[in-house]
What does this fold into?
Amino acid sequence: MQDDRKKNPCADYGRGPDAEIERVVAVRKQRNLLDKGFDESFECGVEQIDDIRRGRYDKEFLRYMFQAFDPCRYHAYRMDACKWQYITHQAGEYVVSDEQGACEQDGQGADRNHSRYFLRRIEPTGPIYEKHAQHKIFQHGHGLVYAEDFGPVDRQKPCQETCCEQHGSSRFRRGNRWILTPSFSLGWNVARENFWEKLADVVEVFKLRVSYGELANQNTTSWYPTYQTLGVTTNGGKWLQNGALTSVASVPGLISTSLSWEKIKNTNIGFDFGALNNRLTGSFDYFWRKTKNMVGPGVELPAILGATVPSTNNTDLTTFGWELSIGWRDKVGELGYGVKLNISDNQTRIDKYPNPTNSLSKYMAGELTGDIYGYTTIGIAKTQEEMDAHIASLPKGGQTAIGSKWEAGDIMYADINGDGKIDNGSNTLDDMGDLKKIGNNTPRFRTGITLDAQWKGFDFSMFWQGVLKRDFDPGENSMVFWGTTGSGQWWSTSFKDHMDYFRAEDTASPLGANVNAYYPRPLFNNKNHKTQTAYLQNAAYMRLKNLQLGYTLPKSLINKIGLQNVRVYVSGENLLTITGLSDTMDPETAGIGKQGGTVYPLSRVYSFGLSVNF
It folds into this structure.
């Protein structure tokens, strides 16, 4: 017997209280869900578990917990110093988060210096049991592990979670004060079913997911938006009475007594997969979110009303889109490397809004949000004769609806509806004059790419982010883009790019003539700055957000001086940007702030670091 133990330290497995562990691993072997190397490291690695200390989590042990027990049916917890810590497996790492809880005794003599591990079972059709599982399967010097039963080990069933909440708010009137928000989620790892066994060696994980949930949004900006209140200002009057200014009250604005909750209905379907020994992993989701009774601008009423129309629950919209994540991680010899791509897209459509005239300045039912309507640009008139000929081709009003005194260096707009003048008609969908839909400012195809590699102590990582499609209208009064604006000299500026403005052949400017300029002649007037095809910007971009190179010193060197880990690294942020956007703007901040983007610019940062663990 002694000789057997020398050959196999786990020879007594199955003869004592650890027999259940052996049974669990044996079942996993039959289902081909654990590789041989892991079985050996677990069965013969009992002494490794004793290395668990406070604040350190043995990965092989946690790996067992997550693989031997279905995370769709169980949640893993760690009790440490009377504190619950919820353990999840994310991106190859074990993440521990604290939960509130009291220190409970289990009769095993555990104290504040011990770590205890538990599995909480999730009912197939109900919530988590809020009690400890009763079946002990393993005990060692620094931890206890419990499981409620072994059902999921033999066969995984679809798991479901349901929730129902009721929300109330004192900001709404009695009939609109309460709202019910149910939700549920359903997941099924098809790869755990018997009919998948032929594919199990190639595709280890294939989980289908579907979820539906409702959220309530209290979209108000005041404490009592459904009641008229008088605004009182102490000593705010203009007359003296008894030697003091009078207090005044202002007439309240109109309110909507029916104001209530916005309800957001989210639906998501998707799947997760892991293949080729989980070297290839990924997920895909398609979602749509319906917002009902959204608080929107009040319906347009005649000006004779003499007051601002209050906002009401008058809008429905739908946001729909998808998300894709796919990654590859492998090791070739001593070189480990990984690649991960994330890309997503979404759009929003207005389903209902009271806009009977289909005004272009308001929401329109059936249209996407972010649509850009603008004029078609013919070009910049290089001579006065060219501009005069253009104006003569518009006998019913020329470009006077936009501006006057048209000269060389000004924009020539196209008469696309052929009515002999340039204007925006009634500014409605049915009568937009010479406007047309020229783009959409919604960021599309948001992308993130992560690359990393490790080799003999060296490590490398790179992260790119970007938006692959976005139209951007700088706005007619953007000094950041145009330089000069209709707001006058105090709201104008001059960058290097603005020097590419029109200058006639006979110019007296020391810069010389520039009849093929990008910008029209600079004016304190916005007639050349209308939304138009020539200056619609392509705000798509890809940016190298972070690049890092590091080296970890060999432990054989640093352990001699009492150190656990020493790493040096160099890092850079915002190192490279690929975009077609004007150099006067940054693609991440375009349109933010005043005057088209007056925000503090993103900086290019270089850094050097040293990380030391004792």
